[in-house]
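Deliverable D5.2: sample structural annotation.
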Amino acid sequence: MKQCLFIVLIVYAATVSSGCKTLSQEGSNVTVTKSMDDVRDCTAIGEVTASPPFVGPKDAEYTMRNKVAMLKGDVLLILKMSVGTAEGMAYKCGS
């Protein structure tokens, strides 16, 4: 019985950890804000979204930060973050 429980826990841990989103090197350079004032003098370059499944608490944010980086942006303005929905705008603020 203990061996069976151990196997179930290992399979569960492997499944959960494999579903977590990772932050790319470029995405780690993206600043996150919820304030329009922070992007007032920046150029909007596109909308970004993230869709479930979300396993980790930062999955939606990491997905959007990676998308901002792919658009060559450097700031993510989070517009909506709730269960099942994550929406933001990519901005280019730096040079």
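Annotation notes: The chain has two helices and four strands. The chain has one domain: 21-92.
The annotation will be released with the project's public dataset once the embargo ends.
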